[in-house]
Amino acid sequence: MIYILKFGASFILPPGIFFVTLAAIAAWAWRRGEKKISCAILSLTFIFYLLSTSVVADSLLRSLESRYTPPSEPYGDVIVVLGGGATKDTPDICGEQGQLTASPSSRLLTAARLYRVLRVPIILSGGQVYADSGPEAWIGRRVLIGLGVDENDIILETDSLNTTQNAIFSSRIIRERGFREPVLVTSAFHMPRAVLCFESRGVDVVPFPADFQANREARDFHYSRMRPSSDALAASSVVLQEKLRMLVTLITGR
Predict the structure, then answer these.
(1) How many beta carbons lie within 10 A of that of residue 101, not counting itself?
(2) Crossing angle for the helix pair 191-200 and 54-65, nearest 10 degrees?
(3) Cβ of 151: how many Cβ atoms within 10 Å?
């Protein structure tokens, strides 16, 4: 009964209510003889509906996340952590302001755990992307120190505003300091594009994906996984965005 209620409620709340509305508009157009318009609306609605289900979203995520696996025995002489978003004025511990958003927080936690294993410096790559967003590398530094990382082992790269610039500016630091085996930490869905950006700068990295959002193997099917949700639609959008940006990087090198 719980699953039935959740399934039904998903078509009353966004994005499900929009699919119901569009289906009603398509039916109205069909009755008015606008069959081509009706079919076009239904087709687009069905595509967006599928993208908003966890079945499709998880499958799309796996297509990116399965490309790299964390080494069972980590190795490297520096850890490079890519930013991915931060708030500017949200309250933090001890009166500090600004926090990393979910994905970069997960990346940072993985980097802190790797630091305990490798005991090598950490490069935090990420600037302040917008006027109302937080300075990612500086916030990350504060968090790492709070997790026990020696502040002398933290190197800041504060100029980058996107993945391409992450690679450009971090690669510069890697070369200047003579690092030879950089361990790249970023979200699993983001890793293929990040590796591509570093390779285009002539830097080979040891991929250490973090922040996995889908199981490696498909879960047993349950009808509740076909209910539309904004989280699933957002995940599908992220994957499609990553694939588009990878294509742009392959074509332009940026």
Answers:
(1) 16
(2) 30
(3) 9
SS (H, E, C) 194-228: HHHHHHHCCCCCEEEEECCCCCCCCCCCCHHHHCC
**Adjacent-strand bridge partners of 80:** 123, 184
- Which pLDDT score, from 0 to 100, does residue 3 have? 67
Residue pLDDT, tens place only, 215-239: 988 877 878 889 999 999 999 999 9
**Complete DSSP assignment for 46-107:** HHHHHHTSHHHHHHHHHHHHTT----SS---SEEEEE---BBSS-B-GGG-B--B-HHHHHH
Chain-centre distance for alpha carbon 19: 26
Question: Between helices 16-31 and 35-51, what is the axis angle to 10°?
Answer: 170
* Poorest-pLDDT segment among 36-50, 86-100, 154-168, 213-227: 213-227
Q: Do residues 26 and 38 lie in contact, with contact meaning Cβ atoms separated by under 8 Å?
A: yes
CATH of domain 52-254: 3.40.50.620
Residue-level pLDDT at 30: 96
Confidence tier at 1 by pLDDT (50, 70, 90)? low
pLDDT at 190 > cutoff 90: yes
Distances (CA, A) of 120 to 45, 106, 124, 209: 50, 19, 13, 18
The alpha carbon of residue 130 and the mean position of all alpha carbons in its chain are separated, in whole angstroms, by 18
Supply the pLDDT for residue 191: 98
